[in-house]
Amino acid sequence: MNGNTLQYVRMFNRFFNKGAMAATYKPIFLRSLLDLGDYDTHGSNNKLVGKQWIEVDGDTVTLDLNFIAVRFLRYCWDLEHSFKLKQSSNPNTSATIVSIIRQELRTGKHKNPPSFATLASKQNEKLRSKVIQESIKPQVLKYLLTDMPGLYVHQKRTNKIKLDTNLIPFMNKHRTIIKNGINYKLTLCLETFNKSAPNVAMKVDQDSYPSRKLSAVSEEILDFEQGHRCFYCDRSYEIPKRRHIDHVIPFNYIFSTDAYNCVAACIRCNSSKSDRLPRQELFDDVLDRNTRFLNKRDKFSRAMRHSFSTYDQEWYKRTYDNCKTDYHVDSLFFEPVEYAV
Ligand SMILES: [Zn+2]
Question: How far apart are CA 2 and CA 10, in angstroms?
């Protein structure tokens, strides 16, 4: 094997210049492989999850596909479960990885998306093996090589691929460029299958997820404007410690924390609402509130002013409707227990 910088640049260029893709697996596989760039070939203080699956011998790296499976699962998990994005052009011939994740979710073992370390642990050995046998090997390994010949060699009938050691420093040095290139391809792909989903590029970039928190000043404005009462049930929450800031359209769908999508809510309403949409009448109240805020936005803090200067009511209404069909689907709409007493 003899990979040098120029060959790798050509390989990645070829991949980035490729036309439309039918599914997300190839960029997700490359995104998973990119972590190999973090492997310290000399250091003993290596914290990389799954480093036990990397063997360096002279100019050859033997990589056990378990290393890829951990990342492959984690990235697909967010796209499928957290963001509910379709990952291939035909939802009926749904990607195997998607059905594996759905099966896994049905076991009820996972309240939150599992971490890399959890996915790499002994308890998930079977799950990783399933991903390798049913998704990575049959759906990615051979096909990616047609786009990037020479990137690796698959050792037949094993779970291992061989790569050139030069790939490690190459990916390390150009990590940001390669990552952004892969994320861009992935975003294009997802936007094709999910026409109305907002902020796809941000959902793809795991390293820079937006904050869920509103600024303290904006929180105070909401407290003041709502008279320290819950937006949904109108009960007084008295002190800020006993209220939450709720994302009206669920955060994982809209994927931003703009003030126009936030209300102050009592803990009970916020917890019971969770990841659901409020019913239409409550959403209309938010629209009215936003029109009021828009008219007096000059009195607000900088962050609030900015949020309302980018507010587009028609877009916001459409986003609520799109969320209903693409994300909320069969869930019941949120309704407070005691509304406007
Ligand atoms: Zn409430």
Answer: 14
- From the CA of 341, how far away is ligand 1's center (Å)? 11
Q: Rounded to the nearest whole angstrom, what is the distance from the C-alpha of residue 264 to the centroid of ligand 1? A: 9
Least Cα distance to 313 among 328, 291, 281 occurs for: 291
CB 206 within 8 A of CB 78: yes
Sign of CA dihedral 201, 207, 209, 210: negative
The rounded Å distance from CA 110 to ligand 1 centre is 28
341, pLDDT greater than 50: no
Q: Which class for 16: exposed (0-12), middle (13-18), buried (19 or more C-beta within 10 A)?
A: middle
Which pLDDT score, from 0 to 100, does residue 45 have? 61
- SS3 at position 177: helix
Ligand 1 centroid to Cα of residue 166, in Å, is 58
Report yes or no: 41 and 56 within 8 Å, Cβ to Cβ: yes
| pLDDT tens string 314-325 | 999 999 999 999
pLDDT tens per residue, range 243-293: 999 999 999 999 999 999 999 999 999 999 999 999 999 999 999 999 999
